[in-house]
Specification:
heterodimer, A: 111 residues, mainly beta, 7-stranded mixed beta sheet, 0% helix, 50% strand, B: 594 residues, alpha+beta, Sulfite Reductase Hemoprotein, domain 2, Sulfite Reductase Hemoprotein, domain 1, Alpha-Beta Plaits, 6-stranded antiparallel beta sheet, 6-stranded mixed beta sheet, 16 helices, 27% helix, binds protoporphyrin IX containing FE, binds iron/sulfur cluster, binds zinc ion
């Protein structure tokens, strides 16, 4: 099935197949982010700026700030999780493990 | 390319959504097609229904728009009954109980835990007494705000209540202005104190006087493009136009048509009119308004009353007319209005019912909501005033609250709201009590505004407070905890000023200590008779940063852990997985479909 994604309420959350899956207020650990030089960037998600999906992989650019150093910014494309192409069920990544935004280029949206 | 939300709005929006809500209510939660949830919940907002946050699926916040905050006789009791019967969640709030009403910063009412199946019955009851949830949320004319004592104020310049009423009648349910690019917030002020808070609204009517055909004519100057949301606060800007009270609906139609046609439908982040005013400037705004949307000539602005504005201006409520509307004030007809301080704007349903009875017994039955989340009982008979003031309910919701209780405002926060970062209302109650018990109030300090917002949307209007608190996170002993950015020195008045953000990411349990230290510092370092706002204004932001330290104190905070990760922060078993939602019409969990 085609994965449908929306970023709603001023970017408060990302919906995958009409189910609210990823929220603002999570802390993401980002290696190799250009938000700041902290290793890792201890990133508070405050708003989803853009979302995309390709072959079930849901990505977003997130506005927020590093709670370590205070720098704010918008991340490069960051994988939020995967939707099963058969059932549509979404498996979120674990924000508190370390992520590397931008490590996969943005893929064309398939919706 | 227009956004997805615009696509949904193009298909179905506004009045026609109501029929579908009736159908869904009839058939139950599961009748909303799985792949249309997002679209429908976006549309539901137009009818005042906001889907509560993750973990609370199938429950709605319902907003009732009460123009100018006015609840006519008979309405409050119905609100109490509806709250009591339908706004009860699976778990009680430990501070406020099981069914509550929230008075909001835009003079509206919010109920929570509303189930889809109950909406028709609720609408029947509300509408039978003339209350409505129409356009209370969503992209159109929101509840119109104004001076809550319009028509009851001895010093007022012009009675703006009929104007607000007329605007409400003209624009509620009006298909022409039903689908705007974003919310449209209007304020009408008729008093000379500035308490309509026009400065932070999309469209503001502000009292002014103009010589027309040799006659001093009272009316309004127009400002556009104010708002606090995101980290982009703006004050409304004058477009150099004066209108008479009779002309307000026409010019309001023109301004909202301009917004409808020229607002940004491709980027919701950029859609509010404040950004169009940024882009165009006020001269172009006026020119386009004049050329494309107005028949006849626009008048230039009249002489305004802004130099008399005292509302939220850092003064003491003792000096000024109606000030924050709390307390006992005489009306022009010899009756009194009594403003009650409702901490964080929340009252239990049984208290609301009691208040409705008291308003009937001692007054006309009318009550009014303020933009400081408080409630005013109007038309209290002068002979019965003392008896009213002796009523038990007024001991807690007091017309003479302590300084810190009086000044506190808090938004909804992680209890229900998707955007939130931190817990808000219960925490502000605890802050307020602790401050009241532990801070020595400096001489002459009668007012001190603490506005606490759970995120940058700024529903609690943090940027216009003495102390601004905005939800954040930090780490304490390595663990993530709820925190606040702290701002100082905001307020309205003749020279409105947004807060300067001076301390970032202060752990929530160290905020009361910070405030105490700051107030002690102020008491020592102030010049003779200097107000807190003046004191802050005299210092540069750099000086204010680090002026005093945040500190742990006897204050304890039960909400330090990530409350947003819970399904409900006060539940015994608060894990997301323990949530009963989504539920059926009886509140029983529905089988999950995966
Ligand atoms: C259940 C969820 C929510 C609740 C309970 C809630 C509550 C409130 C309240 C009480 C107000 C002020 C009163 C009023 O308008 O009558 C308000 C205003 C506001 N809300 Fe929300 N809200 C919620 C979700 C949201 C969302 C999702 C957004 C963003 C899309 C948002 C953005 C705002 C903004 C920007 C303001 C006003 C600030 C300004 O003047 O610009 N709120 N909200
Ligand atoms: S300020 Fe943020 S957290 Fe508070 S009610 Fe508004 S949107 Fe929700
Ligand atoms: Zn007023």
């Amino acid at each position: 099935m085609v994965t449908s994604i929306h970023q709603l309420d001023d970017g408060a959350w990302v919906s995958v197949n009409d189910s609210r899956e990823v929220n603002v207020s999570d802390l993401w650990q980002l290696a190799c982010s250009d938000v700041c030089d902290c290793e890792p960037t201890d990133f508070l998600a405050e708003g989803f700026v853009e979302v995309s999906v390709a072959r079930g992989r849901v990505k977003a650019r997130i506005a927020g700030q590093c709670i370590g150093c205070g720098a704010d910014g918008i991340t490069d494309w960051l994988e939020l999780g995967r939707a099963d192409p058969e059932t549509g069920a979404f498996r979120s990544v674990v924000p508190s493990s370390v992520h590397c935004p931008g490590s996969h280029r943005r893929l064309a949206a398939d919706e | 390319m227009p956004t997805k939300v615009e696509g949904w709005k193009d298909e179905t929006y506004g009045n026609e959504v109501r029929e579908r809500i009736y159908e869904f209510a009839e058939e139950g939660w599961e009748s909303i097609p799985d792949d249309e949830h997002d679209a429908w919940f976006e549309r539901f907002k137009w009818w005042g229904l906001y889907h509560q946050r993750k973990g609370q699926e199938s429950y709605f916040m319902m907003r009732i728009g009460t123009p100018n905050g006015v609840l006519e006789p008979g309405q409050l009791e119905v609100v109490a009954d509806v709250a009591d019967e339908f706004a009860r969640g699976p778990v009680d709030n430990p501070e406020f109980g099981g069914a509550v009403c929230d008075w909001t910063t835009r003079q509206s009412i919010q109920l929570h835990w509303i189930k889809l199946e109950d909406i028709p019955e609720i609408w029947d009851r509300l509408e039978s007494v003339g209350l409505s949830t129409q356009q209370a949320c969503g992209d159109s004319w929101r509840n119109i705000v104004g001076c809550p004592v319009a028509g009851k104020d001895k010093e007022e310049f012009i009675d703006a209540w009929p104007v607000a009423e007329q605007l409400n009648e003209t624009f509620k349910g009006n298909d022409e202005y039903a689908n705007l690019p974003r919310k449209w917030k209007v304020s009408v002020t008729g008093c000379s104190e500035g308490c309509g808070q026009g400065d932070i609204n999309d469209l503001a009517f502000e009292p002014a006087v103009k010589l027309i055909d040799g006659e001093e004519t009272k009316g309004f100057n127009i400002r556009v493009g104010g708002g606090l949301s995101r980290k982009e606060p703006r004050l409304a800007r004058s477009i150099d136009v004066f209108v008479t009270p009779e002309e307000t609906a026409d010019i309001a139609a023109a301004c909202s048509a301009l917004f409808r046609e020229h607002g940004d439908r491709e980027d919701r982040f950029n859609a509010r009119i404040k950004f169009l005013v940024d882009e165009w400037g006020t001269e172009k705004f006026r020119r386009v308004l004049d050329e494309e949307f107005v028949d006849g000539e626009l008048r230039t602005a009249g002489e305004d009353l802004r130099d008399e504005y005292t509302y939220n201006a850092g003064h003491s409520h003792d000096e000024d007319g109606h000030a924050d509307h709390v307390g006992v004030h005489e009306q022009p007809d010899g009756n009194y209005y009594v403003g009650l301080s409702v901490l964080v704007g929340r009252m239990a349903a049984d208290e609301v019912r009691e208040l409705a009875h008291l308003a009937d017994e001692y007054g006309s039955g009318e009550v009014r909501l303020t933009q400081r989340q408080n409630i005013i009982v109007t038309d209290v008979d002068s002979d019965r005033l003392d008896a009213f003031l002796d009523e038990d309910l007024l001991e807690y919701h007091s017309p003479e609250p302590g300084v810190f209780m009086r000044g506190s405002i808090a938004c909804t926060g992680t209890e229900y709201c998707s955007l939130s970062i931190v817990e808000t209302k219960n925490r502000m109650v605890r802050y307020g009590r602790w401050m009241q018990d532990n801070i020595d109030v400096p001489e002459g300090m009668t007012d001190f505004h603490t506005h606490l917002s759970g995120c940058t949307a700024s529903c609690a209007q943090p940027q216009i407070a003495d102390i601004s608190l905005r939800g954040m996170k930090t780490r304490k002993d390595g663990e993530p905890v709820e925190a606040f950015d702290i701002g100082l020195g905001g307020g309205l008045g003749e020279n409105p000023q947004f807060a300067s953000w001076v301390e970032m990411r202060v752990a929530a349990d160290e905020v009361p200590g910070y405030i105490r230290n700051l107030i002690e510092f102020f008491a020592d370092a102030r010049e003779d008779g200097e107000s807190f706002r003046e004191f802050i204004a005299r210092h540069e932001t750099e000086t204010l940063t680090g002026l005093v330290e945040p500190e742990e104190t006897s204050y304890t905070d039960p909400f330090m852990h990530n409350t947003k990760m819970t399904w409900y922060p006060y539940a015994e078993a608060d894990d997301m997985d323990a949530s009963p939602a989504p539920t059926n019409d009886q509140g029983d969990p529905l089988p999950s479909d995966d």
